[in-house]
Specification:
The complex is a heterodimer of chains A (487) and B (522).
Chain A (H helix, E strand, L loop, with lengths): L2 H18 L5 H25 L8 E9 L4 E7 L3 H17 L8 H20 L3 H10 L1 H11 L4 H29 L7 H10 L2 H18 L8 H8 L2 H25 L1 H6 L1 H21 L3 H22 L2 H32 L10 H4 L1 H15 L5 H17 L4 H22 L15 H19 L2 H19 L2
Antiparallel strand pairs in A: 1-2
Chain B lengths: L7 H18 L9 H29 L4 E11 L2 E9 L1 H24 L6 H20 L3 H19 L6 H31 L5 H8 L4 H18 L7 H5 L5 H22 L1 H5 L2 H24 L3 H21 L3 H21 L3 H4 L9 H5 L1 H8 L4 H32 L11 H10 L16 H49 L1 H15 L1
Helix pairs in contact in B: 1-2, 1-4, 2-3, 2-4, 3-4, 3-10, 3-14, 4-5, 4-10, 5-6, 5-10, 6-8, 8-10, 10-13, 10-14, 12-13, 12-17, 13-14, 18-20
The chains are: A mainly alpha (487), B mainly alpha (522).
Chain lengths: 487, 522
């Protein structure tokens, strides 16, 4: 058994073991979940030493035939696009589990589902066969439906239903797109490489049709402007650890899929480049302005995710090295920033039981450590130089500028808006007159500080030394952008 | 040999100033205990500067020729323009510099007793040293740029000395007024510098003298006009004359040094330096005659009606300096130079003895002469100092203030509002105010949005407006449409299908469907 299969099985194994444990052993269950997730994380991060950054090809690949008549196979592997995502996913899963200590009821089901979700997410990023990809894609829905629907806030049922309906609706289009592509290829295989070589030869209008289907599917997840209706409610109603995973990793699945689709259908992407850029810029500003208007903290972060994913889409739409690098970098950066923000706001909510920004004041006096990490996360969200977001936005800006020139002023405008709500929020939470309700708020405990510290350190490290991450994705990005440079 | 040490002459007093200042910061020379050391450093450096100058003088007398222009290096260069560190050690400069150093030393020595146990003793000596160095640099500088450095420093130190008693509002107002009057002259100086570089490519005094012949009449007049403006301001000639009366606010020794003996002569010194340039331009010579003559009259008439010693001396100084300008205008530059030196020495003595003058007087002061008393209008004008100060107020100060008020109003009411900065009145300066305002608004209740989503300024309002539009769109179409639309669609579809299902369960419809199938197959 290969190392990637082990990576997929470890959380699954943990989930099964937890399911076998008796209901009352809460501490044991939590410990086991942490061990399983931690082991997965260690295994994934140990690959860092063995991953060859110079080559764009698949590494650690495994291939087992699955259904020969359909041409599908169990095929997993890592390249420069998927490896950073796998690393991010294992890290955030571990931190989300660490932050789950407030879940006190139905603990067994919760941890089992979380581990199942981790396994499914890793599968999405590692799958090298479209049918396998689709299976994992749908598999993420099942644990999420229960996680939001059972452990969420007041309107959890509606949020869960909404989320699943939206994603399923998108998946239908994606499936149709994949089937059309499958049908149009002579080899009748679902392998990503086969479909890619065949897809590139298709006539442009076929490519555009297929790509539109995939765009709807991935766009729901990402989310792109008109398809983001599920996001605010789901993010707000989900328990905080699930919010971390939702915005930290689940959103990236959409962007990751879009990059794979671009690899398969270059002519279509070139044809729809303008549309993608327009959607990206609109999402960017739309999300930012709505985030600025929200009084609910989680809702604000949810909309800021729409804005930040707009940068990712813009980078992808630029179709050059700088743009794609920016998109990948922003995915990592946003994973860290949004994870950190949801973590901290979630912890704050546990203590104060309010998410309304108007109820907060002068927290810097009672909770200085909270203030430090939150300010750091918000600075990362704005993309200040020295944080990962800056590297990402700069690359996206350069890539976009090469394509569209001064239109990139809109990107800067988006950054400006994000600064407006970030500074406003920081000011509201931490400064101002002292309120009696805010005097008793407890500061971060050591374990919480560890998780916040890891994410903050990531934000800063990637901002100051971005070359390690850039090397990781460099070869794959170069290969993909060479494809479009030829056009 | 000795001329290579000339840079020490202005630098030594500055070092003394720096020493005193740092000592004060470190708390070494504060209070009465520090007076002795402070005075020693200040007078020691002044003495050393004087000695260097004397060596230079003796050397010049011995060899029978002054060293002339001495270039010690380059200060700055940009493109083809360069400014050198050079000193003009001709007979004229050496003579005046020796006099300056000597008077400076005397004044410092005089002040040791005069300012004993004054609160600002150390500060006074620091500024005095700064001024001595500046004045020496003006005189010794070999080019206009270096002279300007001294010129500015002299202006700054005069500002600091007039405001010596800065606790008194009058002192600070007078200091500001004097400094600003000087700045008008500085603008002229800078214009002169720029035109020199532009037209002649050099700032060296000897280069200026050589190049002056090749300049046209107009160019020479332009270059000289800037410097003349500076000279008029510094020497308190007619339109600028009132500042010197305000300068009396400083301690007596400083008045002696600045306005009696040394600084008022800086303008004359500059004019004599520019002799080759001025000789090219008859218009400017006529201007010199006019301004000098007017100032002499102003000083003479004004001096007649003054009733206190320092004011009389001040007006008489003005008159004498006016006469020097007059002499320059008539082409008698050498006469003006002698006049300058003798007048400086005499006036220094007069000012320093002014505090003791009352003890030496044996008869009452002379009354205003009869011919002046007879002419009412002239007497009034002299008493009012020819209304120069109110005129300046009316012409410059008030319009500037009015403009500033208008611009400020524009800033507060238009720009600040547009940018979204709070006007000064709406600032919350205390917690109590904040609470009060909050109570007025009824506090923040649940569901109240507070001021989230509110913004100030034009850009802020635009953002607010767009954001609220998008919010409406989001609430109405995306969220409600997405949630309820999707669900109601599914529910409606479900009802239809149930209906179809129900109909199909009726045998007759089932039969119909089967029949239809057959028809299609056949």
């Amino acid at each position: 058994m290969g190392i990637l299969s082990l990576l997929l099985l470890l959380p699954l194994l943990g989930a099964i073991l937890i399911a076998l444990l008796p209901r009352g052993r809460q501490r044991l269950i939590r410990g086991l979940a942490l061990v399983a997730s931690g082991a997965t994380g260690l295994l994934a991060w140990s690959l860092l030493g063995r991953f060859q950054t110079g080559t764009a090809g698949l590494q650690f690949a495994e291939w087992v035939e699955w259904n020969p008549r359909l041409g599908s196979a169990y095929s997993v592997g890592l390249d420069g696009f998927s490896f950073p995502m796998v690393l991010l996913a294992t890290l955030l899963c571990f931190i989300a589990l660490l932050a789950s200590s407030s879940i006190r009821e139905r603990v067994k089901g919760y941890y089992a589902l979380m581990l199942l979700l981790e396994s499914a997410m890793l599968g999405v990023f590692m799958a090298q066969d479209w049918s396998l990809f689709y299976v994992f894609w749908e598999l993420t829905l099942i644990p999420l439906l229960f996680l939001i629907g059972r452990w969420g806030g007041a309107r959890r049922q509606q949020a869960a239903l909404n989320f699943v309906l939206y994603t399923m609706g998108g998946s239908v289009f994606m499936l149709i797109g994949l089937l059309v592509a499958f049908d149009a290829t002579p080899g009748h295989s679902f392998a990503m490489t086969d479909l890619a070589t065949a897809g590139r030869l298709l006539p442009e209008h076929t490519q555009v049709l297929i790509f539109l289907g995939l765009l709807v599917g991935f766009g729901v997840k990402m989310p792109i402007f008109p398809l983001h209706g599920w996001l605010p409610l789901a993010h707000v109603e989900a328990p905080s650890p699930v919010s971390i995973l939702l915005s930290g990793i689940l959103l990236k699945m959409g962007a990751y899929g879009l990059i794979r689709a671009a690899d398969m259908l270059p002519a279509a992407v070139m044809a729809l480049q303008g549309l993608l850029a327009a959607l990206a810029l609109f999402s960017l500003i739309y999300g930012g302005l709505l985030a600025w208007r929200q009084t609910d903290l989680k809702r604000m972060i949810a909309y800021s995710s729409v804005s930040h994913m707009g940068v990712v889409l813009l980078g992808i739409a630029a179709l050059n090295t700088a743009g794609l690098t920016g998109a990948m970098m922003q995915m990592v950066a946003h994973g860290l920033v949004a994870g950190s923000l949801f973590l901290l706001i979630g912890l704050l909510y546990e203590r104060t039981h309010t998410r309304d920004i108007n109820h907060y004041s002068s927290l810097v006096q009672t909770t200085p450590r909270f203030a430090f990490f939150t300010v750091l996360a918000f600075i990362g969200a704005v993309g200040m130089p020295g944080t990962a977001g800056f590297v990402a936005e700069l690359h996206a800006l350069i890539g976009g500028f090469e394509r569209w020139g001064w239109l990139m002023l809109l990107l800067s405008l988006g950054v400006l808006i994000s600064a407006a709500y970030a500074i406003r929020t920081v000011g509201r939470l931490f400064t101002g007159p002292v309120r009696s309700q805010m005097r008793e708020v407890q500061d971060l405990r050591p374990a919480e500080m560890l998780s916040a510290g890891v994410l903050s350190a990531g934000i800063l490290l990637l901002g100051v030394f971005p070359s390690s991450t850039l090397n990781l994705m460099g070869a794959s990005v170069a290969q993909l952008s060479a494809l479009f440079a030829a056009h | 040999m000795a001329e290579s040490l000339v840079w020490l002459v202005p630098l030594l007093p500055w070092l003394a100033a720096g020493w005193i200042g740092i000592g004060w910061l470190l708390g070494r020379n504060r209070g009465e205990a520090g007076e002795r050391g402070t005075a020693r450093v200040a007078s020691g450096t002044a003495l050393l500067a004087l000695l260097i100058l004397l060596v230079l003088d003796v050397q010049a007398l011995w060899t029978g020729a002054a060293p002339g222009q001495v270039v010690l290096g380059q200060w700055l260069a940009s493109g083809e323009y360069q400014v050198l560190v050079s000193f003009a050690l001709d007979g004229y400069a050496l003579l005046v510099a020796t006099l300056v150093a000597f008077i400076g030393l005397l004044v410092i020595r005089f002040s040791v007793n005069y300012l004993h146990r004054e609160a600002g003793f150390q500060r006074f000596f620091m500024i005095l040293s700064l001024f001595t160095g500046a004045m020496l640099l003006i005189v010794l500088a070999g080019n206009a740029a270096l002279a300007f450095v001294g010129w500015e420093l002299a202006g700054v130190s005069s500002y600091l000395l007039i405001a010596y008693a800065y606790q008194r509002p009058v002192a600070t107002i007078n200091a500001t007024r004097a400094f600003l009057s000087n700045r008008i002259g500085d603008a002229g100086f800078m214009l002169g510098l720029f035109l020199c570089l532009h037209l002649l490519g050099t700032l060296e005094w000897d280069g200026l003298a050589r190049g002056a012949g090749e300049l046209g009449q107009l160019s020479a007049a332009l270059v000289a006009a800037g410097f003349l403006l500076a000279a008029f301001a510094k020497s308190a000639q007619v339109p600028f004359a009132p500042w010197i009366a305000r300068a009396l606010e400083g301690p007596t020794p400083s008045s002696a040094l600045f306005y009696g003996a040394l600084m008022v002569h800086a303008g004359v010194y500059l004019v004599i330096r520019l002799e080759p340039l001025l000789m090219q331009s008859p218009v400017l010579l006529a201007l010199l005659v006019l301004v000098g003559g007017l100032t002499a009259l102003y000083g003479f008439l004004g001096g007649l009606v003054q009733t206190d010693v320092k004011s009389v001396l001040m007006f008489s100084t003005s008159a004498q300096v006016g006469l020097m300008f007059l002499a320059c205008g008539l082409g008698w530059f050498e006469l003006a130079a002698w006049h300058l030196v003798l007048h400086a020495a005499w006036r220094a003595f007069q000012f320093l003895s002014a505090p003791a003058l009352m003890h030496l007087m044996h008869r009452p002061t002379r009354p205003v002469p009869a011919w002046l008393r007879g002419r009412r209008w002239l007497h009034t004008a002299a008493l009012q100092r020819f209304w120069l100060d109110p005129l300046a107020n009316w012409l410059l100060v008030r319009p500037t203030q009015a403009l500033a008020r208008d611009v400020r109003a524009f800033d507060e009411h238009v720009v600040n509002r547009m940018v979204g900065l709070p006007a000064s009145i709406s600032l919350v300066s205390s917690l109590a105010q904040w609470e009060q305002r909050k109570q007025l608004k009824g506090g923040v209740l649940d569901g109240d949005t507070g001021d989230v989503g509110r913004a100030r300024g034009a850009a802020g309002h635009l953002m607010e407006w767009i954001a609220s539009g998008l919010q409406w769109f989001e609430e109405r179409l995306v969220l409600r449409g997405g949630e309820q639309g999707l669900q109601s669609l599914i529910q409606r579809l479900g009802t239809y299908l149930t209906e179809v299902e129900r109909l199909l369960s009726h045998p007759r419809y089932l039969l119909l469907v089967i029949l239809a199938t057959f028809v299609v197959i056949l």
